[in-house]
Amino acid sequence: MTPEVPKNHPRYESLVTREKIIEGMHQKIVAEAGLIAHGRGEAFDYILGENTPDFALKQEKLAVITLLKAEEPVISINGNVAVLCPNEIVELSRILEAPLEINLFYRRLEREEAIKNLLEKAGAQNIYGVDQSKQETIPEISHQRRIVDSRGIARSDCVFVPLEDGDRTMALRKLGKDVVTVDLNPLSRTSLTATVSITNNVSRAVKEMVSFAKDYKNMNSLALEDEKKRFDNKALLQEALKFMSSRLEELASDRKLFEV
Ligand code: PTJ
Q: Is 35 in the pocket of ligand 1 (CB under 6 A)?
């Protein structure tokens, strides 16, 4: 049973999100390690100011363009993402025409079922990753995530993998696939090796990507290519780290902060 979070609590949003993750774990949607992952994310989000900075909006635009230009984009879903932004990820999948595939690090049938139900409630129709007759193995990946859907990740040229572990990102890149990710830690192996890294909270990032996807969807291919040239993934990732470090410096020099 989760406690009521008082609306006037100064950290209301953060506490409500934390409760969603805990409740998700009780419902077998989120892995136990998902709680630890969430805590790590929260710490980085605190440094970010719990808002989307300009560089992240640019990363999100580059991510959406990359997914729109892909031949067979796929969105990989894990427990944390399913709980944090089910409606938004289903909408993004619809706009980008990128199927959703459940692909878990801590793979268990009951979790796959629970995530499938949650996504269906949010409006998803054809969810990959749960039909055993369509399973294929990617030998380059060393853990449970090697089992993928033959209609989805197996043949996709561009996989969106929010909140990912580094091994799979590297394996998918080695297989020649583009990888788009969201990870609040700009120094994680995932962030460093993805084709496009978004340094933002997945709850904000996916919502903003939906809005960019609506804008870009009707752009012709040449205009989209020109727009893409405005953004450089590595430079934006460097900007993310510089942003975090200068924010820490600013906070450290803010005397008022220490007068509480
Ligand atoms: O549901 P499963 O079984 O597939 O497991 C999912 C987790 C997330 C538990 C699994 O993939 C895992 O262990 O991931 P890691 O290696 O802990 O990496 C998660 C990354 O996501 C870390 O770098 C966190 O900083 C980051 N992160 C956590 N919460 C958020 C986040 N990034 C963006 N938004 C968040 N809300």
A: no
CB 126 within 8 A of CB 99: yes
Taken in order of first residue, the domains within the chain and their CATH numbers are 54-242 (3.40.50.12640)
Distance separating alpha carbons of residues 186 and 190, to the nearest angstrom = 9
Ligand 1 within 6 A of 41 CB? yes
Ligand 1 atom closest to the CA of 37, numbered from 1: 17
Are β-strands 135-137 and 147-149 bridged in parallel, bridged antiparallel, or unpaired? antiparallel
- What pLDDT does 246 receive? 97
**Given ligand 1 and candidates 163, 181, 202, 204, which is best to mutate, with the most ligand atoms within 8 Å of its CB?**
163
Instruction: Write out the two tokens for 25.
Output: 């774990």
| Blockwise average pLDDT, block size 10, the chain, 260 residues | 72 90 97 97 96 98 98 98 98 98 95 98 97 92 88 97 89 95 97 98 98 97 96 98 97 88
- Give this prediction's pTM: 0.96
The Cβ of residue 126 has, within 10 Å, a number of other Cβ atoms equal to 8
Q: Is residue 106 in contact with ligand 1, taking CB distance under 6 Å? A: yes
Q: Cα–Cα–Cα angle for 116, 121, 125, nearest 5°?
A: 65
pLDDT at 143: 82
